[in-house]
Amino acid sequence: MNILVVGSGGREHALVWKLRQSPQVKTIFCAPGNAGIGQHATLVQLKPTDVKGLLKLAKEKKIDLTVVGSEHPLVEGLVDTFEEYGFKVFGPSKSAAQLEGSKVFSKDFMTRNHIPTAQYRNFSATAYDEAKSYINTLDPPMVVKADGLAAGKGVIICKDRQEALVALDDIVLHRAFGDAGSQIVVEEFLVGEEASIFVLTDGERFVTLSSAQDHKRILDGDLGKNTGGMGAYAPAPVVTEEILQRVIHEVIRPTLGGMKHEGSPYCGCLYIGLMMTADGPKVLEYNCRFGDPETQVVVPLIDGDLAEIFLSVAERRLDPSKVKMHQAAAVCVVMASLGYPDQYESGKQISGLENIKMEDGVMVFHAGTRKDGDKIVTSGGRVLGVTAIGFNNELDQTIRNAYHAVEKITFDGAYYRSDIGKKALKYLYATEQRINNKESL
Ligand code: AMP
Ligand code: GLY
Question: Which residue segments constitute the domains of the chain, with CATH numbers given?
Fold first, then answer.
């Protein structure tokens, strides 16, 4: 099989790394990729949204399967174009990708299909006065969201009405997110712990992969600015078997059934971002692709041939019984450039990568790196995702292994959070405590 992977981050590195392990895979091309991906695939300098260029490449290289990592090409319809030309693609169609591409669509879709989510109202930019009046009726905190893709920045959590009115002005009047702000969602703030669940589906059948938890804020203790994600772990103990069953029943089945019923069957990976509220799990967001950095912890736990699994999805013949997860834990610590998520410098030489060995259960997924002669240098805000995989299933040791590896890698201005996975330990200890208490009764 010849595979084309579209994207360039840590998520794509994890996908390429796992696809490379398939005995069916002959060549992998990645557009545009990064220095780490270049160890397992041929890099092609094409942008993920250059559909014409990618299609030409697919024809020339006789690509059997295309895997799309990031949301933009999906929302813009790459899958529809490729399928028109007879290519097989792992990813949703343009209309199915609206679940991520338009928050207004996804909120109304959830209402139509009775899927639990925060209370909300949608407004077009011309209904500015109505949006203002609605904000004045809500109890703070509240959340104001730009409808379209805004590189993860279009969600503004507002602690009072004044902040919400400023957010409204920024999105609607000052067009802080361009056309992504031509509609807005104003919604209730949900309290609880977040987790995400990845669903692989061919539109008819589905299978859930491991749950995971991202760490979105830049500083320890979930403080500071929002980022693309500073680390992740899987599975997330907050998603108990009971909660998973609720999510399958209350969210996954109605979502996939609803999309099929509405003429946009969902095919590919559906990322469900959840808040575990006192009233049960509620959907914060859908993403139409794998999460980053959650992929770096979920993909290594898949026990199977990823190329075969993706192909079966693309050919609408997924066999859920063939998708198994290792009983293991994984932790990814993101090493970022100092200054991220604001201004940062690039081109810093990375040292120590040769000290990390997969035999020790650690894999370094590259995010923002490139080759400079025979050196590897930084080229982005998030640089590396240092990922430990604990097949003994002990999360605390896996966390220590990840940090031990992080300490072996250096580059000028390297920054990372020191508390990735800590939240999960709290749950595990609480569960252990309950078991011990029961045993001592
Ligand atoms: P979204 O892109 O909609 O997931 O929003 C990004 C992040 O904002 C989420 O991962 C949450 O941390 C936060 N968020 C979004 N909506 C809400 C909400 N209604 N209540 C609390 N936090 C939210
Ligand atoms: N980790 C969040 C995302 O991929 O959107």
Answer: 2-91 (3.40.50.20), 119-188 (3.30.1490.20), 327-441 (3.90.600.10)
